Structures are given as C-alpha cells and as structure tokens.
C-alpha cells in the first residue's frame, strides 16, 4: 500500500483516535521520516504522544503545540524514535514511559499487558521484541464504536519495505513470535513507526513472515555454496550474496539481520 505523505510539520488525522506528525528525518532507515503519533478521543483536549522522534526543535515544538501533551510513550529506544523525548518532556511536563528504564522520565515504566487509559481511549501494551529487545506495540481502542481499533507497531512492521533485526539486541526467534502475535490481529489497522498506515495487521504480518522465511532460505543456500555452517560463516560475505540487489547504503543494516539469522540457524542446528 502506498499513500501520499504530507510535508513535515503537517498534522494528518488518520483515524478518529490517531493523527500523525511526520518528523523531518527521512533516510534509508527511516523512510519518509519518523511517524510521531498523536492520540486523543474526539472532543478531548489532552493527547498521548507515541514516539516523539529525533531531537529536532521545530518538530518537537510542533508536537507540543498540538497539546496539551499528557503522556509520552516509546515503542523502543532507537534514537529516531526516542531522542526527542527528553526535550518534549521539558516543553510539556509530560512523563515518558518506556520498557527500558534508561528511557523513562517519571515514576512509571511499561510492561506487557499494561493498559494506559485516557478519557475515551485505551492503549494495551503488547510485547513485540525482535527488532530490539525493548520493542513494544500498542493496541489502541476507543469508547466510540465508530472510532475503530488500531495497533501502533513502531519498527516491528513498517508502512513499506522490511525492518532490520538489530543484532545482537534484536533476535530473530523473538521477531518471528512477535509477527505471529500481530498476525492474530486480523483486519486491525497498522499505525507504523515509518511509512504509511496499513489496512490489516494480519496481512502485513503474513507478508513479513513470508519475507523472513525467504531470506532464511537464501542464507541457507549461501552457506551451502560456501561450504560452511552458520557458526563459521562470514556475515559480510552472506550479505554480498543474499543482498546483492539491495542498495549498498542498507548493507550495514542487512548485516545485522544476517547475524541474527545466523544465530537463529545455529540454535536450530548447533
């Protein structure tokens, strides 16, 4: 699915409960930029911000201006999602909640099964490790039937392309389990950390699972050709073989995923 994205600094309403403000940090790893999600029930003044993005003064001032910001949540600690959290906290006074204590500002963290409630909306915390160990998704529901439900996936599922399993913090077995969890959400709208929203979490997760299986098959073929096992393979050589048609700017990220794939295969057949 593709969609025209508004320029950075423009708030776009995506669902009755969720609007997005695109951060000005486009790049090979961030696609059009980081999606900063602004969540509020219709008629409510205060909002919850998910992933304030980079520490960019203009972007964070624009986020604060949509407030009052009552709470800041992080899907994970990568800088393109979290670096602006401390500045937004100073601008608004809103606490920052995250799974990793290193990224919290306030008395509360986040854990699997936690429910963050605000008037007219609820966010249930789903553990979705794999991209990173601290990756979370948020299941968003509202009081009004017409509001619908959505899942905010951070970098676990993107609006287009695929994500990196950021070895050694990210683990492929965790990532596959997280995709299976999201697959069970069926037709629920995906609000990703980068790229456009997607109409169905189940279909997106199935595509991601198929992509990972295809990559694993390619890695296995590369190992057979090289005559080595996963414990003896040169990850850079595997990248050159498996990702030959991929933009070389993405090869460092691809090598992280390859290392995670090799670890996974080694655990399957030590």
Please give the domain count: 2
Please give the number of β-strands. Answer: 11
Helices and strands, in order, run as EEEEHEHHEEEEEHEHHH
- CATH superfamily grouping of the largest domain: Ribonuclease Z/Hydroxyacylglutathione hydrolase-like
Beta fraction: 15-25%
What is the CATH C level class of the largest domain, in words? Alpha Beta
CATH fold title of the largest domain:
Metallo-beta-lactamase, Chain A
Query: Mean pLDDT across all residues, rounded?
Result: 93
Determine the number of helices (DSSP H or I, runs of at least 4 residues). 7
Largest sheet: 6 strands, mixed
Strand adjacency order, main sheet: 1-2-3-4-5-6
The helix content is: 25-40%
Gross geometry: elongated
- The rounded Rg comes to 19 Å
Detail the poorly predicted runs.
Answer: 1-5
End-to-end Cα distance, whole Å, is 40 Å
Query: Given the helix and strand composition, which structural class is it?
Result: alpha/beta
What's the CATH architecture of the largest domain?
A: 4-Layer Sandwich
């Amino acid at each position: 699915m593709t969609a025209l994205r508004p320029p950075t600094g423009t708030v776009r309403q995506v669902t009755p409960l969720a609007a997005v403000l695109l951060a000005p940090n486009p790049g090979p790893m961030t696609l059009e930029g980081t999606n900063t999600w602004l969540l509020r029930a219709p008629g409510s003044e205060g909002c919850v911000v998910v992933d304030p993005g980079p520490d960019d003064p203009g972007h964070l001032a624009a986020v604060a201006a949509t407030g009052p910001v009552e709470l800041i949540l992080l899907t994970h600690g990568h800088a393109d999602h979290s670096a602006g959290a401390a500045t937004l906290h100073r601008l608004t006074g809103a606490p920052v909640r995250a799974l990793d204590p290193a990224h919290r500002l306030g008395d509360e963290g986040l854990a699997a099964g936690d429910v963050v409630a605000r008037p007219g909306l609820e966010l249930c915390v789903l553990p979705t490790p794999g991209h990173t160990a601290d990756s979370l998704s948020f299941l968003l529901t509202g009081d009004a039937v017409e509001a619908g439900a959505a899942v905010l996936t951070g970098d676990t599922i993107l609006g287009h392309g695929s994500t990196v399993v950021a070895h050694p913090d990210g683990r492929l077995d965790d990532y596959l389990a997280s995709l299976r969890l999201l697959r069970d959400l069926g037709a629920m709208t995906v609000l990703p950390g980068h790229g456009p929203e997607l109409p169905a979490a189940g279909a997106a997760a199935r595509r991601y699972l198929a992509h990972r299986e295809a990559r694993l098959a390619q890695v296995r073929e590369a190992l057979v050709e090289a005559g080595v096992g996963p414990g003896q393979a040169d990850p850079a050589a595997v990248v050159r073989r498996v990702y030959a048609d991929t933009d070389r700017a993405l090869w460092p990220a691809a090598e992280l995923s390859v290392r995670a794939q090799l670890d996974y295969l080694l655990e399957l057949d030590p």
